[in-house]
Write a structure and sequence with these properties.
This protein has 332 residues and is mainly beta. 11% of the residues lie in helices and 56% in strands.
């Protein structure tokens, strides 16, 4: 009950802040946004289960204040919640997805401080997972989140101004205490007409007893072949002190006909070198029907085939995962 009450108070405070911002321009521009994404699924691991699945529903507050003709103060607060029961995704955090403040300039770039998702993740896995925005049970289960740091806290990030439609972002997350992990991300993105390319380097270093280091290199490309057809993918190479090295490949195709979208997404990893038989294959077939620019209904079938020592997407090694889903997503 306490969590629900705190969520309501935060939401009411946010609404009041937004109405005040529109009424008094000196507070800058503040907007509330979000996504509600739910699916009904028949999932199978060692048995079949019917589930109402939340797919990364979230709401947030974004704001900007113009300080000069070229410099703005910016911030973003974003909270994940389970739309199937209305509870916070993380009961211990008010804004578990985004929590940062920064300065933005077209001439000098953007500086942010706080907490955010890995820029390398956005440059690679998120970019090519087009069928359900890399959320829920069909999200990329093979990508090396450990090396990227996943959700970066105590983070400082700088993103360059766009030059020839190219940007580079560098982020560093402090460990802050013994036993934590410090993380470095370097992400490159560029649009070359119909070709969209990206690359990333990430390193996560344990500052505790093990002092182990996880390192990732990744390159990505997506090409708009026609207005209706797009294809892309990424190649990832990981080197972990404790697990060895591995390759991870993913490809995706999207075909659009009117309001209809057809998707194919396939990923494969050969597994880490210090353990035998720990590779996996993941694939998804998806269909979306766009009721409007902000609302869609969809269906997909997704599957992860784990080798006997792999546990991608499941809790037990050697167990496979499959799900048939129908869902509804609305952005606001």
């Amino acid at each position: 009950m306490a969590n629900r009450t705190s969520c309501l108070l935060v939401a009411l405070a946010a609404a009041a802040a937004v109405s005040g911002a529109h009424a008094q321009s000196r507070y800058g521009n503040i907007d509330i946004y979000g996504r509600i994404n739910l699916s009904y699924e028949n999932q199978k691991t060692t048995r079949h289960t019917n589930v109402m699945q939340d797919n990364a529903s979230r709401w947030g507050i974004v704001g900007e204040e113009n300080i000069s003709s070229d410099v703005s103060a910016i911030f973003n607060l974003e909270s994940g919640f389970n739309a199937d029961n209305g509870m916070n995704k993380d009961p211990a955090a008010s804004f578990d997805r985004e929590s940062w403040v920064g300065l933005a300039s077209k001439k000098f770039g953007t500086l942010r401080m706080g907490a955010t998702t890995s820029p390398v993740y956005y440059a690679a896995a998120d970019y090519v997972s087009m069928h359900n925005h890399d959320t829920g049970t069909s999200s990329d289960a093979l990508f090396g989140f450990d090396a990227t740091g996943g959700h970066l806290t105590n983070m400082t990030a700088y993103k360059t101004p766009a030059f020839n439609d190219a940007t580079v972002e560098v982020a560093y997350a402090l460990a802050e205490k013994s036993g934590g992990r410090s993380v470095v991300n370097v992400a490159y993105n560029q649009d070359i007409k119909a070709l969209h390319v990206g690359a990333g380097y990430a390193q996560s270093k344990d500052r505790g007893v093990s002092n182990s280091t996880d390192t990732m290199y990744v390159v990505r490309a997506l090409y708009d072949i026609t207005d209706a057809l797009a294809a892309g993918g990424y190649w990832e190479y990981d080197k972990y002190d404790q697990q060895g090295h591995r390759n991870n490949l993913r490809g995706a195709v999207k075909y659009t006909v009117g309001a209809n979208e057809f998707h194919v997404n396939v990923g494969y990893t050969n597994g880490f070198s210090k353990t035998e038989d720990n590779g996996a294959l993941q694939w998804t077939l998806g269909y979306n029907y766009n009721l409007s620019p902000r609302t869609k209904v969809y269906a997909f079938y997704t599957r992860i085939d784990n080798e006997k020592n792999a546990s991608y997407g499941v809790d037990e090694a050697g167990v496979n995962f499959a799900s048939f889903a129908v869902g509804l997503r609305h952005n606001f």
